[in-house]
Design goal:
By secondary structure, the chain is α+β, with helices and mostly antiparallel strands. It has a domain of 183 residues: Chloramphenicol acetyltransferase-like domain (Chloramphenicol Acetyltransferase, 2-Layer Sandwich). It has 8 helices and 10 strands. Strands 2, 5, 6, 7, 8, 9 and 10 form a 7-stranded mixed beta sheet that branches. It has a 3-stranded antiparallel beta sheet with strand order 1-4-3, with helices on one face.
């Protein structure tokens, strides 16, 4: 990328060659929640699960899961489809500098357990194996330490009087509008990530619709449900039982059009149907016409 220009942000570059419709949309729909598009889909993950079982043979510490496959598939798709890595802030459209994936980690599987926020930046040499090591390592680290960073800041602010919280939030929203929120608060906040993923299957919950937040820069929210067996009718009319999972995706329609989103979703499906592709480097091209 070239040198940044006036009007660019710390985390992205302003897109200046917009068509009229996409230039006007952030003014007609200034809030991210006003511009949501939701997709609910059922995915056949039989081949992905078989690949994981084979990959995990003899592995004890860094065992791949279906969630890791989704993380890698989503990162690869964003790499191939860069408009997915755009965001609207301050009524302007920007291209993000990095591909970042955000998650929420529950410290313990208990009703009253704290949740921690986690973000990781995709590297061009990422593979499924690398994603597994990074995510497993980060989860273990989060569950083994006290809250800090954005978690610690939220805990501190949450104890203040109501009027002071309202004043702080007003100041935060103002900084957010102009892209001036301190990096210490945005670096580990999934609301500033390219894609915010929620692995609801880990708590035996189905995929749900999850709104986008008006603060931050996140434009894509993905929820992944519980794996289940389901009978499927094949093209030849025969029936078979497959492993399936429901996926919910919420998108900010201001960053691209429906045609672009639809073709991008086909890449995710192709990668999970051909999971061996997930162990190729992120930057490596794949032979697929969406």
């Amino acid at each position: 990328m070239g040198k940044k220009r006036f009007g660019d942000r710390r985390d992205g570059r302003r897109i200046r060659d917009l068509d009229g419709m996409h230039a006007i949309m952030p003014h007609l729909m200034p809030k991210r929640a006003d511009a949501e598009v939701y997709l609910s889909a059922r995915m056949d993950v039989t081949d992905a699960l078989a690949y994981i079982r084979s990959k995990n043979e003899g592995e004890e510490e860094y065992r791949a899961t279906l969630f890791h496959c989704f993380v890698m598939a989503v990162a690869k798709t964003v790499w191939m489809r860069p408009r997915l890595n755009r965001f609207v802030s301050g009524r302007r459209l920007y291209q993000r500098d990095e591909i970042t994936l955000g998650f929420v980690v529950k410290r313990r599987f208990e009703d009253h357990s704290e949740e921690s926020l986690m973000v990781t930046a995709a590297q061009e040499d990422w593979t499924l194996s690398e994603v597994t090591r990074i995510v497993v390592g980060k989860v273990h680290k989060v569950r083994g330490q006290a809250s800090f960073g954005v978690d610690g800041a939220l805990n501190a602010v949450g104890r203040l009087p109501r009027w002071l919280i309202a004043l702080i939030v007003w100041g935060y929203r103002t900084l957010d509008f102009f892209g001036r929120v301190p990096q210490a608060l945005t670096a580990e906040d999934p609301n500033y990530a390219t894609v915010f993923l929620s692995n609801l299957g880990s708590i035996q919950s189905p995929a749900v619709y999850h709104h986008l937040n008006n603060h931050g820069t996140n434009s894509i929210m993905v929820t992944i449900g519980t794996i289940r067996k389901e009978e499927i009718v094949l093209a030849d009319g025969s029936r078979t039982v497959r492993d399936v999972v429901d996926v919910g995706i919420t998108l900010d329609e201001r960053i691209a059009d429906g045609f672009y989103f639809g073709r991008s979703w086909k890449i995710v499906q192709h990668l999970l149907t051909n999971p061996e592709l997930l162990d190729r480097p992120l930057k490596e091209e794949i032979d697929f016409e969406c």
